[in-house]
Amino acid sequence: MLKQQTAFRYLNADIPFFEETAEAAGYEVIVQSAENDAVTQVSQAENVLTQGVDAIVIQPVDFNVAGRIADLAREAGVPLASYDDLILNSEHDAFIGRDPREGGAEAARETLAVVPNGNYVLIGGDPGQTGSTLMQEGYHDVLDPIVESGEVAIVMDQFTPGWKTEPAQALAENALTANDNEVDVFLSSYDGMTLGILQAIAQAGIPDGEILVTGQDMELSAMQAIAEGRQFGSLWPAPEEMATAGAETAVALANCEPVTAELTVDNGAGQIPFVKTPIYLVTQDELAEFACSHQYWQNVDEVYANVPDERPEC
Are residues 70 and 198 in the same domain? Predict the structure, then answer.
């Protein structure tokens, strides 16, 4: 399994669930992390291909560069599936992941239900990953008709290389300054970026919760901010379900069996089996239920550390 980076989500959800499923089927799992470096990921793929692996599952750092990895695997006769982000313009055997466009659309719909008029800022993740670009398209699917009606204005629409906190904070500061703090919603594609956005809001002296902020991944900082009312919500890409489906797909490919998928997706090189997994927004209304049902993910006491009276009894 070739991952983008070693982050909390991958260490605590994707990797363990993937390993558990694949090992139960009798396979050994080799995990490599490229730490968001596309060139490193190509080198890692070249290395594992020399080890006689039966299948590769890769979360691409860059969907175009990763096409080289898909080509190498095909030349070596090793089946390959892209995971979480779709490799573009290169033939491979399957894609496992959520539909980030649907996630972006849901985040936009839920914020519009609360803020039907106002200034919206869109801060996406890395522009080289479909998980970011498609989520941005989902925002636009919902918002553009409202923009045309004049009820909503998109006052910034930017991506953040590497999904990093500091550039996202700088973008948020610029958006607030350019609009005299008259921003009503920040739609952000990752909770690591919302850390910077929330910091920018606080430094501008804007009260907690006055601006709706969304993220993705339900990281501890985001869950705490949702519990405290500082963040509106976070998209949960169900990595435990994604990893399980990814391992099941890898096992099928290794056994030369057909991939179980009801959908296909066109990556520019043809139709690829699409093993679709869920994505949905968790707001304060759903937080308690989520925290109790995902205790492997985050400790409930830590989630509600700053608002202990709100802690649910699980």
Answer: no
CATH of the domain at 13: 3.40.50.2300
The CA dihedral of 128, 130, 132, 137, to the nearest 10 degrees, is 120
**φ and ψ of 290, to 5 deg:** -65, -45
Co-location of 79 and 150 in the same domain: no
Average pLDDT of the residues in 288-312: 96
User: What 3-state class would DSSP assign to 58?
Assistant: strand
- 222 & 244 share domain: no
Q: For the whole model, what pTM was predicted? A: 0.89
149 and 248 belong to one structural domain: no
The reply to whether 189 and 213 lie within a common domain is yes
Averaged pLDDT of the chain: 95
Burial tier of 314 (Cβ tally within 10 Å: 0-12, 13-18, 19+): exposed
Q: What is the mean pLDDT of residues 95-113?
A: 97
Are 73 and 26 within one domain? Answer: yes
Helices (H), the chain: 8-9, 15-24, 38-49, 66-76, 100-114, 130-149, 165-178, 191-203, 220-228, 239-254, 284-293, 300-303
Select from 40, 133, 39, 81 the least CA-distant residue to 254: 81
Q: Count up the domains in the chain and report the number.
A: 2
Cβ atoms within 10 A of the Cβ of 302, count?
12
Tell me the residue length of the chain.
314
Residues 214 and 107 both lie in one domain: yes
Tokens of 294: 């995902």
**Tokens linked to 161:** 């290389």
**pLDDT category, 63, cuts 50, 70, 90?**
confident
Q: Which domain holds residue 249?
A: 2-98+238-277
Q: Does residue 225 carry a pLDDT above 90?
A: yes
